[in-house]
Amino acid sequence: MITIVDYDAGNPRSIINMLAYLGVSAELTGDPDTVAKAGHLILPGVGKFDWGMRRLHDKGLAGPLDEAVKRGVPILGICLGAQLLTRGSEEGELPGLGWIPARTVAFDRSQLDARLKVPHIGWADTEWAAGRRMTVSTSNPRYYYVHGFHIVCDDPTTELCRAEHGYGFTAGVEQDNVFGVQFHPEKSLSFGMAVLRHFAGL
Description:
Strand content: 25-35%
Number of domains: 1
Structural class: alpha/beta
CATH class: Alpha Beta
Radius of gyration: 16 Å
CATH architecture: 3-Layer(aba) Sandwich
Largest sheet: 8 strands, mixed
Distance between the termini: 12 Å
Strand order of the largest sheet: 2-1-3-4-12-11-10-7
């Protein structure tokens, strides 16, 4: 059973539908006790960093999430959910969950060709680091992105995958049982299915 954290940040139904297609049981909940006792967690999200952190605290979910992570529960952050795993973001002032030694920064427009827009929206080739728990073995993987900020890791060994939009950026992170991907697996067709299937098997 995968527990999807409901904190009113985006529409997680597409994640549930893809998991159902894969034959993986899932529940959507904003109940702190259920989150604390979960065996697998997905933290989705679309929106601004401070708003997302504020919702987690207002709904009493930050503490139970931390409790689950300390128990070793695998957790996958998606898009905003991945950014919330870091210490904080240039987009806001609130501290993040801090499970990944990294920060979230805005795309550096000075490094982008004038034809490249921010936010970065669309498909991008993505390269997985070898030998990580969440590394997905897929030929020529491409995923769908919608973001104006990206993660910068303190330690390169925390980087799980990498993509490019004008310059290379961290597209995924891994630290022990904590994983995050900047792209949307639920919008990435068979490539995204492979990611969710792999996570469900951890």
